[in-house]
Amino acid sequence: MDQSFPGTLQRWLTAPRVGALPAPAAMPAPQLSFEFFPPKTEALEAQLWACVRRLAPLRPRFVSVTYGAGGSTQARTHATVSRILRETTLTPAAHLTCVDASRAEVDRVAREYWDAGVRHIVALRGDQPPGVERYEPHPDGYAYAADLVEGLRRIAPFEISVAAYPEAHPTALSADHDLDNLKRKIDAGATRAITQYFFDTDVYLRFLDRCGAAGITVPIVPGIFPVNSIVQVKKFSAMCGASVPGWMDHLFDGLENDPETRRMVSAVVAAEQVRLLQANGVDEFHFYTLNRPDLVYAIAHILGARPASAEASAPASANGVVEERAAAGAASTPP
Ligand SMILES: Cc1cc2nc3c(=O)[nH]c(=O)nc-3n(C[C@H](O)[C@H](O)[C@H](O)COP(=O)(O)OP(=O)(O)OC[C@H]3O[C@@H](n4cnc5c(N)ncnc54)[C@H](O)[C@@H]3O)c2cc1C
């Protein structure tokens, strides 16, 4: 045989071997959490609640509600979190940011959350409103997330999550500075970090190693972003410093006008990512849902998450939330 042109089988047999992924049934179901954004319009409100109903039966550990850039959604975030508390058995986590607010204002919002029964805050510096280039702390405000965590600790014994950046925050002086900053947030009292999304699993695993070496022991929960549109993801990523590997471009190439195939490809990409993470011991996942449940539901299913009851698993069940509450013995008020 001509050794310079090995035959197909020989090529396969000499190619690098990929480590076996665990059999799904052999893995315990992971802990899940879901991120929603507060809706602006009635149509988006309906979309959010359909999403909540679809995902609630998976019994997430918590569901978080974002705070718009520049603190622009304060009232909507509050309303959404309150409704989740009132009408579901889910545990809400309210995002809270430092941008454009005095300490007194931020403290007031935090106290209102505590009084309303909210026990978990995702504490962030926050993004600037669109059009504002550079971050300037409010003269009487919390300058950075670590300061906010300290402030929240003084107000009430909240559970506090913070943001982490496997590829470093885009304005960080260096990756080491950014890791020091994460450590400061944990030392100030945060008990969990949730990562910016990433697509190369190695990037996250190397970051975990660096967190471990820096003495961080709290969970660094991977943020998983199932891609609906590569164009949109590239735009986001340019702003938030997450890289979009070339292989993603290649995978979505030619699918611009084919949403159905795009969704199938997205599901495969995210499923591969979570299975790889699971194979590396990760058993907690945070999903950026963009208030769209289907891809997240499918990926959670692949991870071994199952609905609390058979009826509750039906897509678009109008009664999902109420069924959940009834199952938990709560008085039922239709949403
Ligand atoms: C899970 C998650 C959820 C998010 N949710 C929201 C949301 O709801 N609303 C929103 O507006 N944005 C949100 N963001 C985006 C986030 O607000 C931005 O990335 C923001 O630019 C940084 O927030 P942070 O809390 O990470 O900031 P910080 O931890 O304060 O860090 C911000 C930057 O400042 C640097 N830094 C920190 N302390 C100092 C210091 N003392 N001196 C100089 N530099 C310093 C850090 O290294 C880093 O580069 C979220 C991000 C993630 C990962």
Automatic annotation (TrEMBL):
Pathway: One-carbon metabolism; tetrahydrofolate interconversion; Amino-acid biosynthesis; L-methionine biosynthesis via de novo pathway. Keywords: Amino-acid biosynthesis, FAD, Flavoprotein, Methionine biosynthesis, NAD, Oxidoreductase. Transmembrane segments: none annotated. Its cofactor is FAD. InterPro entries: FAD-linked_oxidoreductase-like, Mehydrof_redctse-like, MTHF_reductase_bac. PANTHER family: METHYLENETETRAHYDROFOLATE REDUCTASE, METHYLENETETRAHYDROFOLATE REDUCTASE (NADPH). This is Methylenetetrahydrofolate reductase. One of its GO terms (molecular function) is FAD binding. Gene3D superfamilies: 3.20.20.220. Belongs to the methylenetetrahydrofolate reductase family. It catalyses: (6S)-5-methyl-5,6,7,8-tetrahydrofolate + NAD(+) = (6R)-5,10-methylene-5,6,7,8-tetrahydrofolate + NADH + H(+). One of its GO terms (biological process) is methionine biosynthetic process. Pfam families: MTHFR. GO terms for cellular component: cytosol. Its EC number is 1.5.1.54. The keyword Phosphoprotein does not apply.
